Amino acid sequence: MALQIASLNSGSNGNCYYIGNTKEAVLIDIGISCRETEIRMKQRGLDIKRIKAVFVSHEHTDHIRGVSTLANKYGVPIFITSATAQNGPKLIKHLSRAFIADEPIQVGSLWVTPFGKKHDAADPHSFMVEQDGIKVGIITDIGQVCDRVIHYFSQCHAAFLESNYDPILLQNGRYSEYLKQRIRGGLGHISNQQALELFINHKSPHLSHLFLSHLSKENNSPELAASVFAPHAGNTYITVASRYAATDVYDIPQKHRALTLF
Predict the structure, then answer these.
(1) Domains in the chain, CATH or no CATH each
(2) Which of 152, 52, 140 is nearest to 101 (CA)?
(3) Three-state secondary structure of the chain
(4) Of 22, 41, 163, 224, which shows the fewest CB atoms inside 10 Å?
(5) Angle formed by the axes of helices 67-74 and 34-43, to 10°?
(6) CB distance 160 to 17 below 8 Å
(7) Nearest-5° angle of CA 23, CA 24, CA 29?
(8) Does 109 have pLDDT greater than 70?
């Protein structure tokens, strides 16, 4: 079975990523409403009954907004660390499951491996989802490209990778100096250029798809982020995950060469 992946939404207004097959799937974060999650999955021909688990990266609202409602409605287990749960969504306790960094969790034929990252949250994690040797990374909200990020990104056949801001737009923008430093200070987000350096220096030869994710509305644009990566794309299909709509659903691996914008 091929792995199917899509971004249902990506940005400070909400994050939600789908990875699955024809029988089972997981969501990484639900930062949009349960209703909007249902609508966007239906629009892309994805059956919400395939969702067998939700994994929560950290407690910020743009990652947990719809978690409790969807878990309650469908009886889906929520994998979340105790520190994140204490600071985050009010979950139904019998649906909550703990996870430990670098220890894979089986969800049907899928294996989900959480790993630690640098971000200004209680206990933040990113994730690798694997099926039959095909690996998809969900690597957003990273304040820096640390060793753990490099280790997992370098294995990916596809990845949702943060490309949050342009340094010049951030520096010259309307944000306070405190907020600017929070974003770029090592526990916030990474820039287009930092994401590009990770891509150039550590991508695997089988990286077929890269979704530029969690773009800032104020300090970036889809066109700008895509233009930074375009000269270096090679055989990797690069697209920008929208903050307003779901992307298309992609089978991994699948050969593409062109670069598109959303």
Answers:
(1) 3-252 (3.60.15.10)
(2) 152
(3) CCEEEEEEECCCCCCEEEEECCCCEEEECCCCCHHHHHHHHHHCCCCHHHEEEEECCCCCHHHHCCHHHHHHHHCCCEECCHHHHHHCCCCCHHHEECCCCCCCEEECCEEEEEEECCCCCCCCEEEEEEECCEEEEEECCCCCCCHHHHHHHCCCCEEEEECCECHHHHHHCCCCHHHHHHHHCCCCCCEHHHHHHHHHHHCCCCCCEEEEECCCCCCCCHHHHHHHHHHHCCCCEEEECCCCCCCCCEEECCCCCCCCCC
(4) 22
(5) 70
(6) yes
(7) 155
(8) yes
Residue 257 has pLDDT above 80, yes or no: no
Give me the residues paired with residue 152 across strands. Answer: none
Q: Please determine, for residue 259, whether its predicted confidence score (pLDDT) is greater than 70.
A: no
Q: Name the residue with tokens 């895509």.
A: 226
